[in-house]
Amino acid sequence: MKTPLLVLIYLSEESQALIGDKFDIIYAPDRETRIAAIQGAASEVKVVLTNGAVGLSAADMQALSKLELVCALGAGFENIDTDHARAHGIKVGTGAGTNDDCVADHAMGLLLSVMRNIPRLDQACREGIWRDDLRLPPQLAGKRLGIVGLGTIGKKIARRAAAFDMEVGYFNRTRRDDVDYHYLDSVLHLASWADALVIATPGGAATRHLISTKELHALGPQGFLVNISRGSVVDTAALAQVLKDGELGGAGLDVYESEPKPPQALLEFDNVVLTPHMAGWSPDAITASLRQFLHNARDYTD
Fold first, then answer.
1. pTM of the predicted protein model
2. Of 26, 53, 109, 234, which has the maximum CB count within 10 A?
3. What is the mean pLDDT of the chain?
């Protein structure tokens, strides 16, 4: 008999098949099925699979009285109540490292898209508008890229930016001794130094609205913002206002405070490129994260 597993996130049929060999899946990827499952079929489960955005609350953990392991698909775990888990002997595992390359690739894609104005150029070409009638977009080469959060993903973004001949600077909680990029001692100083700012810091209360009016003004009318971390890190209202005032060159966002609903305050701007929290998603990354989950959960399978 296979071990029951409560899955609280969307998984494709292929992904379900990959873990279905080891687990009897109780699939509850939305609020209604989640509530029903926790109150019913999942009450005896020992293992839950979720992600950082969906998480697992202390109340849900209490309802799952047999719970022993919570795993996040991907690196994020900000909405898993780790304090409650730790206090009650519940282990927490993540897929950290399984989608780093995918996220770094996506960050550069957003940076290229917004700096080179690719979506607007595509639209103009389809409308028969030739280059002579369009604003010339800046190139990446020779520009300064500031990275907020030089962890594993931040370092991968930096290496990709260096390949574009960009000058790289960063802000981190502590200065790193394993890189020779420029270190700036605050986000504000980094934004003042940079032509483009990429946010690669964790989410959570400590980084909420880390990027707001002061930082965006420091980045300036020729500056660009990319966020592939968590939507809470950027103050959406402040971003909308500086864009409306022409005080920022543009923004590329894979995450936003309103998700999964689109950020309504930003939809009017043609210098904003939006993707639906897809930076860490590719067939390769999903498979790697699921295999990491199976590794983390190997002691809980029958």
1. 0.91
2. 234
3. 95
CB 253 within 8 A of CB 263: yes
> What HEC string does 178-242 produce?
CCCCEECCCHHHHHHHCCEEEECCCCCHHHCCCECHHHHHHHCCCCEEEECCCHHHECHHHHHHH
Choice among 257, 259, 268, 291 that is catalytic:
259
Rounded to the nearest 10 degrees, how much is the dihedral formed by the CA atoms of 285, 290, 291, 295?
Answer: 140
Segment holding 55, helix H or strand E: none
Cα separation of 237 and 20, whole Å? Answer: 43
Amino acid 295: pLDDT: 93
The answer to whether 208 is a known catalytic residue is no
Catalytic annotation, pick one of 34, 120, 160, 230: 230
What is the dihedral sign for C-alpha 24, 30, 34, 37?
negative
pLDDT of 212 > 80? The answer is yes
Contact assessment for residue 137 and residue 115, using Cβ atoms and an 8 Å cutoff = yes
CB atoms inside a 10 Å sphere around CB 28: 20
Establish whether 230 is a catalytic residue: yes
Q: In this structure, what DSSP letter does residue 278 have?
A: -
Summarize pLDDT for 221-231 with one digit per residue, the tens.
999 999 999 99
Concerning whether 277 is annotated as a catalytic residue, the answer is yes
| Catalytic site residue from 116, 176, 209, 277 | 277
Q: Please count the residues of the chain.
A: 302
